[in-house]
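Batch manifest, entry 17 of 40.
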Amino acid sequence: MNNETKVDLAKILADHAAWRIDYNAGKAEWYDSRRADLSGADLRDANLRDANLRGADLRDANLRRADLSGADLRGADLRGADLSGANLSDADLSDADLRDANLRGANLRDADLRGADLSGANLSDADLRGADLSGANLSDADLRDANLRRADLSGADLRGADLRGANLSDANLSDADLSDANLRGADLRDANLRGAVGLPYVPIVQNIDQRILAAVEADSKALDMSQWHTCETTHCRAGWAIHLAGDGGRVLESIYGSEVAGTLIYLAARPGKKHPDFFASNEDALASIRADAAEAVSA
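Output type: structure tokens
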């Protein structure tokens, strides 16, 4: 980068809007602000794609809607920063300090957040598909309705996290700490919960598919996949799992909701096997119950 294209740090802080126009006009290809003090800076809508911000001080900075895709933010201090609506896809945020940061609606798809501290952060509605959050601190974080499909949360600290309505399908939650986490309405389809701690006691229903099959074959109206529970003798597949788990099942349902409770009961009843589709039609669900019951008998 020659002298004509260098970006002056003082100018960024003093007149970010003008700098942004110059940047987008191609007068600055990128800005290397390693260890730079940008605390409290107004960087709204900034184009910082692939920028080197490793170790930068961005405490309380306004980065709302900024484009930080592919940026190097390793070890950066982003405490209290406003990153709502920002694009952080493919960014490297490993070991970054994001305590109490606002990441509401941010795009963190495939971002590297290994070992990052996100305690108390607002990640509601954020896109975290495929993100690496292994070993991250997400205690007391707000992850309501966040998309964490295929995210790696192995060994993550999720104590007290709000995961209501979050999409955790295919996520890796092995060895994660979920103590006091709110998972009500979360989608845990095909999630890996092996070694996860903090979940309440999950009763083990022996021969779960054979027992459900016996109930629904004895009464053609006993299986209704349109509702979790219709009455004491009619349930969907998840509802039957909860019903067969007795008081323990009802406790799980009251804490997590029917879908999550049914998922946990099925995962405990059939270790190493994926839980069934709780939204199949009556016909498909019955065929699946029969197949799974027959498989269990032959095993």
